[in-house]
Request: fold
Amino acid sequence: MRKIVLLPVLVFILACAPLAAPQTLPPAPTAYIDPSYPTIESAPQSSSQLMSGIEVRAERAWRDGKQVNADVCFTLIDASDWSISGASMQYADVTIFDFGSTLLRLQEPAAGQSGLRCDTLSFLNVPPDVDLSNVTITVDAIAAQPRPEDYCTIYMPKIQQTLDERGIAIVLGCVDSNGVQVMQIMAKPDTMSQEEAEQIVYSDEFYTIRGPWSFAFNLGQ
Reply:
């Protein structure tokens, strides 16, 4: 009986067959911006508020599709790097805490005069069909994260005074470190760990000014 070997023929057919086209993935979805989304600008009902020694002024707010922006300015009490560390936007029973901030202009304090910083606050993912005829934008806190040398030149007297007023027996001092004066804890109660003392001394309460400064706008229905 004659044997028929098909293997070489099969290999030849497979080798000559056209390669399958590589699979292409569909493009990633992108955010849809409808031309009909509202764009409305409004001045605040009250443009300026003074609290905790800081004046905050709202210049305008505007609704741009799914985003609400507001231009706000605040006084600078010293040369520290002050910025808005907390803000919120409220409408109906919804409060948005996530925001972005873009510097508009900066005037440094000079000759005993307060400085001024202005920023655009942006709140994202606001439904375009929501009623914003009564919206409140609030600056909750302003903070200046200190540099190591700032503690001795700006913050140590305030921190030491607060510790003394609260009856906390922590003594602060400044020492030279590579030509820079840095603040250190010189003495503390024996019952207090170093970590506990540092948590008290380096608390953000000493470089944060809390509001709130709130401004109402009518950005339409």
